[in-house]
Write a structure and sequence with these properties.
The structure is a single chain. The protein has 316 residues and is mainly β. The protein has one domain: Distorted Sandwich (Beta-galactosidase, Chain A, domain 5). The chain is 7% helix and 46% strand. It is built from three helices and 23 strands. The longest helix has 13 residues.
Amino acid sequence: MSPDGPAVSAVETIGADFHGRGTRRIANDELWVEVLATAGPRIVRAGLTGSSQNLLAETPEAGWETPNGRYELFGGHRLWFAPEDPDRVAVPDGAGLTVGVEPDGLRLTGTAERPTGLVRSMVLRLANGSPGLEICHELRNVSDAPIELAPWAITQLPLGGVVMLPQPAATWGHHVRPNRTLVLWPYSSWEDPRFRPRDGLLTLDALPGPSLKLGYLNAAGWVGYVLDGIVLVRRFVPVPGRPHPDLGCNVEVYIGGSYLELELLGPLATLRPGATVALVETWEIAAIDPIDGDSDLHALATLLAGSNLRMPLHRQ
C-alpha cells in the first residue's frame, strides 16, 4: 500500500469473462470492480481484493421483450430513471458502449437512445486514499425537448442477507411534525415476515417469497446489505428539501424470487436539451464478524452512521 492510500492497478481487459461477454476491471489494495466492455453502462462484479467472490447478483438469462427489443438484465448495477415507465426506461443496451480509461478509473458512456433522448453514463473511481468506489451516474438529454426525471441507480444482490435501512429513532416529547415515511407498492404486504421495522433501523430479510417492494426518504445518507460475513454500504448525499418520485422516495428495495434490488434515487429534475443530471454515491465493502440478531445489526448501524469502512468492523 502506498503512503497516500491504496494504489490503483492498471485497467486490464478481460475477454468474454461474464457469461460470454468481455469485461474491464479496476482494482486497488482493497476492492476490485468489473464492468461490461461493450454493453451498458453496467457493473457486473465487485469484491474484496484477494477474493474471487462476486458480491453482486448474476442474472445472465433474465430479460424481457420491450417495444425496442429484448432488454437483458445481466445482474449487477445499472442506471435507470424514474418515475418508472417500463416501455421507456428499459432500453436495450447490449452494444455501443464507449469505455474511457482515466487515471483512477473508468468512464462508461452508452449510446444516444432514440426512445428516451438520453445518454446514460457512469464514471467509476478508485482513487488513492479512498476507502471505496465512487460512482457518478449521469443522464444527459440529447433530444430537442425538456425531460422530467430522477436518476435511479439499481444494484442487484444475491438473496440470503439482510438489508439495513436507517431510520430516525423515536424520541420523547410532543412534536407536531412527522419525521418518518414508508411507501409500499401494491403487491407488498404489511404482514410479510421479511419486513422488520424497529426504532432507528428498518431491516428486510432478503429471502425468497412473494414480491416485496418498499421505499422511503432516507435522511441518513447510507444503506447497507450484510451477506456471508461481508457488508456493502452505499453512501450518498440526501436532498430532503426537493421533490422525489414514488411519493417522495430516495431509497427503495425490491425482493423477488431470485434476487434483491437495492435502489437509490435522486430528486426530480427537468433536463433542458443538452443538460445533464448526476447522482453520486460511494460503495464501501468490508469483512465483518458474524451477525447474531438485532442487537448486532443495531451496533453495526451505529458504527456505520459515524464512520466509513476504513475502520475495522470487528468486535474487540
